[in-house]
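Throughout our pipeline, every protein is held as a single compact record rather than as scattered files. Such a record has a labelled line for the sequence and another for the backbone structure tokens. This encoding replaces a full spatial description with a residue-level series of whole-number codes. For reference, a complete record is included directly beneath this paragraph.
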Amino acid sequence: MERDERDRADALDRYWDVIQRGDRPSATVAIEDELAALVAGLHAARVVAPVLFPDPEQAWRQLRQTPTPSPRPRRDAAAIPAPAHPNGRAAFAVEDRPAAAR
């Protein structure tokens, strides 16, 4: 997120909080007119975000008890890393090089 987007999101958060408290927004919490109208409309309609977890403690316990899947080991040659040279390239023995590279 770019700096101006982050600043806009922060201003919207502060504005929303002020409206939710029932206070009047000050000049320091100003946002664009379109956003202010949207927030006012949502507040007037008493739109409330849905509750994702009715019991957050139970959801957290269930999440902690859920086993974490372990990655399956690969057995093909692509999974075996080639030894690295100090220059960052893979180190091959002379006999392992293709004939064109010799």
Summary: The longest helix spans residues 3-21. The two ends are 50 Å apart (CA to CA).
